Sequence to fold (571 residues):
Amino acid sequence: MKISACAFLILFCFQFGYGQSKWEGNTSPNYEELIAHLKAVSKENPEVELYEMGPSDYGLPIYLCVINGERDSLKTFDKAKKETTILINNAIHPGEPDGINACLIWLERWIKNGKQTDNLPVIAFIPAYNVGGMMNRSSTSRANQNGPEEYGFRGNSRNLDLNRDFIKMDSENAFTFCKIFHALNPDIFVDNHVSNGADYQYVLTYISQMKERMAPSLRKLVYGNLLPSITKELRTKKLDLFPYVELKGETPNEGIAAFNDLPRYAMGYASLFNSISFTVETHMLKPFPDRVKATYEFMDELINWTKINRKVIELSRRKADLWVQDQKLFRFNYQLSEEKDSINFKGFEHAFPEHEITGLKRLFYDRTKPYERMIPHFNKYVNRDSILIPQFYVVGGQEKEVINRLKVNNVFFKTIQTDSTILVTAFFAKNYKSPEKPYEGHFKHSELSFELKEISYSLKPGDILIPTKQKSANFIHSVIQPSAEDSYFSWNFFDSYLQEKEYFSNYVFVDKIAEILESNPQLKNEYIERKKNDESFRNSEWEQLYFIYSKSKYFEPSFMRLPIFQVLNRK
Ligand SMILES: [Zn+2]
Fold:
């Protein structure tokens, strides 16, 4: 009788989910279920605050759930800014919803365990960032993924990948994120994902900030303390923590590379403001409940580590904020170095058997043959460019889209009220390449080069003057310096300056060239030389006239000149 009673109890518990959270199964809530659940939790537990933070492109709001706040919106955000705060972002790619479930489980256990707040940082999580993608559910858009039963879509309602949108900010979601991010000023930021790519034994891999871009105090804290500590702690829970498997070749045998967390990505964006940032990538082939558990454990360990290290986190961030303002050079265009280290890797043997349908060799990972061996680790980046940091930047007041983005990113600037003339360095676009097909709604420019010229510039009311000695300095350089990887120039904000507005009629201008050439002997010599050596030039009236026109007073001086300038330190 005893045995059958026990069996009944087990069955009962299994049926009704006692002892186990309903978020630990193979399902993930949709947007309505998720928000309804959090509303109910926050109603029952005043320690859990739920805020509507702003719109998404879809129309429905983006929420923020805050634990260990002050139960008052003003005081809560004030506390977050002043004290240690962790921000966790979920479902930027709603096909990868592991973080949603992990946060719900964490919240459930925290409540069940008596809502302990001893040394607890402020914990804020965005339950679902890509609302439009959450509303577009299916069981098929992640062809290679092992659960959950149903999930959302990667693109948002405008088909944007929001994890490329943090600088260009095409989506309303990005503006809402900015508001959340700067209202909290998080010390630690985590963006939860599920990976594609090679097969290996790890359930969870992480991307941490590119070392070379970090302030020394934060680099030391993350690579010397945080990562070794939580790797060790997670091992006691039988979870191996490993860096994201960014392949150098076709398989892990050729090595893995550190990830270049450009500002367009959530974690790259957060890094610009000296937040300690991670992207969590669980492995697509591992079952959803295992992935959720791993995401939970990583988050829980990060929270535990933060509890113990609050003082050193605050101190290291303050040092980093000063460090960015002390820099003489801004380094950018980072490239992976060929220099490599080794790393112990737990993979699966692979082979290339012939496939019966394609008749071609296919890559096959053999899960019955796990291995552990050293593989090459390319974890060093070198900056290809750098600039001397100016004292100020000037942005033309007509660039409202840019100025608005600077404003919502907490950039301090002064708006010019009266006309005056100053000496500035102007950027003239020399070379740039635009792709044939759009990338995230843009024909993003690359291979950028500029000619820098000192000019006298007439400041007008509405122009803005941005001092570079401020906490947001890294963000400012990254978007304003036109040759930086994710500059506003590269994202097409200044394309209208890349086109001439006026031309000439050949039959009129041809009568002016004698006078122009006579008044400019150097130009005359260049013209004669070119005519002598260049056959197409010799045979084209247009080419000859344009050559003279482009070097005459009639040519528009603002052609290719960007509406941004720098003022160097003249000490
Ligand atoms: Zn993702």
User: Anything to note?
Assistant: The pocket of zinc ion is lined by residues 93, 96, 193 (CB under 6 Å).
